[in-house]
Structures are given as C-alpha cells and as structure tokens.
C-alpha cells in the first residue's frame, strides 16, 4: 500500500492487490535474447503513467482489458516477458522465460482530479501509481517490465508502467504502447516489431575512431556534489523559446543550450570547471544502412559537447547553441559504430560528473495507448532517473509548448529561474 499526505488534510491511499504474472497468450521463443552495446549504457528504470477519465464507460473492466491485451501484444514483443541476466561476456542479456511481466491491480481513495491536485504539490506522489518490487537490491532482481492499473473513486483509472531502458528507447516504447492499444481494440499491429538487435553488434575487430568524451570523467572543482546534498526542488516550467538572433537552429538546440548555460550559472560553477552536455540522437535513419522499420530496442546514441563553464557564460548565447549543433552533427554512422566498439573494448558507461543529460520527450510524438477509453487526460514520467537529468515534455492542448522538468538544489533553483526569465 502506498500513501502520501496532501496539505495536512488528506491522506492518499493506494491499496494494491498481490502481483501476478501476465505471460504471452501464445507460446513464444525461449532462450537468450541479445542486447546490443547501445542497450547496455542505459539500464535504468523508466516510470510512466497514463491517466484516463471516463464518466460514461467507468473503470470496471479497465484492468481486465489492459491485462488481456498485454498478454496478446507480448506474443509479438516476447523479450518483455523474460528476465535480465548476465552473459558470459559480462553483458546484460534477456533470458526469454515467457513468464511475463508483473501485473498489479490497485484502488485509490480519491478521484483522479484530487490525485492531480496532490501531484501538483508533491510530484513524487505519482510513484504510488507504478509498481516496484519491494526489496530488489539491483537491476537483475528488478523486472524488465511491470504494470499497475489503479482505479479511482470517480470512475477514472491509471496505467503505470516501469520498464528498463535497456529494453527500449523512447521511440520503441511508443511503438510498443501503440501496438498494445491496437490489441486492446481488436486491431492488427500497424508496425510489427523488428527484434533482431545483432545488426548493431560491435565490429570485428572493434575500431574506436572518435574521442567519445561522453565517457570522460570530469573533476568536480566547483564542489557541486556538496550543493546537491541540499533539499531538491523539482519544477515544471513552460518556456516558448524565442531568440531573434538565432535563425538557423532548432527549438531543441536553442532550449538545450539555454538550460545548459543557465544550470552552470545556477550551480555557481568555477569558470575553469569543465562541463559536459549529453543527449540522445535517434540513429535509426543515420545508420548505413538505416535500421529496419519497427526496430525494437535502443536505436539512439549519446552525443556530447564539452566546454568550460566560464566560456559558456562569458560568450554570447549563440556560442552554446553552436556547441549543441555540433553535437547533433557529430552523429554519423561512423560515430555510432565507434561508440558501439568503444563499449566492446572498455565496458565503460558515460560519466555524469559535471554533466547535464537532456532527454526530450517533446520530440517523441508520444501518444497514449488507446485501450478503448480514448486519449489520456495526463501522460508523463514519474520523477527523474538522476539529478543530472533534464526532461523536455510536450505541454498544452496541442502539445506544441515545451515544459522543462529538472531537479536542482533549492538555493540554485531561484538563480536558474531568473536566468531563464531573462531570455
């Protein structure tokens, strides 16, 4: 049972039933399923919730529909019905057991609108809508995928997902969720998954052709680690970026540069502090040949930009934008193959010291799974995977605005907000 107190007056309670397994409806392939080197770098749990409101249909059959359609779609996405293990090469690999993800039914003692009110004051209250295995000590004890369906007193319901990022990047997750909804509505899959990840195997022999500063371990001469011991403040802030001086860049490039620059100032980084920017670029169309349609896995690669904090702050805003543009243009087939080979030779994972990681849900074209109740009234992540991460989320009725969601020490957040407002 999860609980959270709001404004000292109301205590949110989520009563969870015992979890059950949802195996694929039909027999699926067994044995080990290969995860490529791009999958190995991002083995973190991503939590997402989908809120549905329906006065007419209600939530009586919600769990049944979601569960049955999950069993159907897992026939096509059978690796999600397995469990993680370690291969003889010391890499993550999926043991395709066919046991299925954990599924939990739950009930909340409030309406969905009361839930959203609580979440406005305490965004982490949304964690109660996602099932997490108690006592799991490491990634191998954590399921690759869990589902929780929570019914609200008003007839609304939530679907909460927790999926290991090594199984799918955002694009693949969106396609899986869309397929899930299609099965719930009795439709064929519009894009069947392409499951062969061996097409992204390392070259033989591996060839490292780039410096790969995304793995660079930066010395924290600004003592930001001490600053992050303060209470964290999380903020969603709408920002429509308009910079007349910059005419040849995307919104993503300009906004990323703004957040990187403003965060350096807010954390009072030493002028000589090296700071790194990391963000994912979709490599599906940049590989030669391109990855097949429906590729299921991580087709993204982390790219990077490096700068001294002083250079970011002392130069015009366009300086930071050009660094971001350079990081985007860095991603070619050669660079991505080199990154795959780099992991093959080093087993290194990107260092986050002195680093900002930007992940842009705003570019995913994210749509909620339509289980027969229509579109969601809210779709979004639960919390941030690391303190160094900034999320760009679509916002507004037409989802054309962008909200920036990041965690920062309380003393730094006011500086960050002021810096953003000045643009």
Write the layout of secondary structure elements.
Blueprint: E1 2-6, E2 10-16, E3 20-21, E4 31-33, H1 37-40, E5 45-52, H2 62-73, E6 83-86, E7 92-96, E8 102-108, H3 112-121, E9 145-151, E10 157-164, H4 170-184, H5 224-227, E11 232-238, H6 251-266, E12 274-282, E13 300-308, H7 309-314, H8 317-329, H9 333-346, E14 355-360, E15 378-381, E16 389-395, E17 401-409, H10 410-421
What would your notes on this structure say?
This protein has 423 residues and is of the alpha+beta class. It has 10 helices and 17 strands. The protein has helices at 37-40, 62-73, 112-121, 170-184, 224-227, 251-266, 309-314, 317-329, 333-346, 410-421; strands at 2-6, 10-16, 20-21, 31-33, 45-52, 83-86, 92-96, 102-108, 145-151, 157-164, 232-238, 274-282, 300-308, 355-360, 378-381, 389-395, 401-409. The strands form 3 sheets. Strands 1, 2, 3, 5, 8, 9, 10 and 15 form an 8-stranded mixed beta sheet that branches. Strands 11-17-16-14-12-13 form a 6-stranded mixed beta sheet. Helix 6 (251-266) crosses helix 10 (410-421). The termini are far apart. Mean pLDDT is 87; it is low at 3-8 and 233-243.
């Amino acid at each position: 049972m999860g609980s959270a107190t709001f404004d000292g007056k109301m205590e949110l309670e989520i009563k969870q039933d015992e979890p059950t397994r949802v195996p694929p409806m039909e027999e699926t392939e067994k044995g080990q399923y290969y995860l490529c080197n791009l999958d190995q770098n991002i083995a973190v749990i991503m939590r997402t919730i989908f809120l549905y409101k329906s006065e007419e249909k209600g939530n009586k059959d919600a769990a049944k529909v979601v569960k049955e359609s999950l069993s159907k779609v897992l026939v096509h996405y059978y690796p999600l019905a397995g469990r993680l293990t370690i291969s003889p090469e010391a890499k993550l690999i999926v043991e395709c057991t066919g046991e299925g993800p954990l599924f939990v039914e739950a009930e909340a003692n409030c309406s969905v609108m009361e839930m959203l009110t609580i979440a406005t004051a305490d965004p982490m209250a949304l964690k109660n809508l996602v099932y997490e295995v108690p006592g799991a000590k490491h990634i191998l004890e954590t399921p690759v995928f869990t589902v929780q369906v929570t019914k609200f007193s008003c007839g609304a319901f939530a679907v909460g997902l927790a999926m290991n990022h090594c199984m799918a990047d955002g694009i693949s997750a969106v396609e899986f969720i869309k397929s899930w909804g299609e099965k719930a509505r009795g439709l064929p899959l519009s894009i069947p998954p392409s499951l062969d990840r061996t097409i992204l195997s390392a070259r033989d022999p591996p060839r490292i052709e780039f410096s790969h500063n995304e793995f660079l371990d930066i010395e924290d001469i600004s003592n930001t680690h001490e600053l992050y011991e303060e209470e964290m403040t999380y903020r969603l802030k709408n920002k429509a970026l308009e910079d007349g001086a910059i005419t040849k860049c995307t919104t993503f490039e300009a906004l990323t540069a703004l957040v990187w620059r403003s965060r350096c100032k807010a954390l009072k980084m030493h002028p000589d502090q090296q700071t790194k920017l990391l963000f994912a670029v979709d490599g599906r169309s940049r590989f030669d040949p391109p990855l097949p349609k429906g590729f299921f896995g991580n087709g993204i690669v982390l790219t990077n930009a490096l700068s001294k904090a002083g250079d970011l702050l002392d130069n015009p805003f366009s300086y930071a934008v050009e660094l971001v543009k350079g990081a985007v243009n860095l991603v070619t087939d050669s660079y991505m193959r080199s990154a795959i080979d780099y992991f093959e030779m080093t087993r290194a994972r990107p260092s986050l010291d002195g680093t900002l990681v930007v992940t842009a849900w705003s570019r995913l074209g994210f749509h909620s799974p339509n289980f027969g109740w229509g579109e969601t009234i809210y779709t979004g992540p639960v919390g941030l995977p690391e303190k160094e991460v900034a999320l760009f989320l679509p916002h507004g009725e037409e989802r054309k605005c962008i909200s920036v969601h990041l965690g920062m020490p309380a003393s730094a957040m006011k500086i960050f907000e002021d810096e953003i407002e000045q643009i």
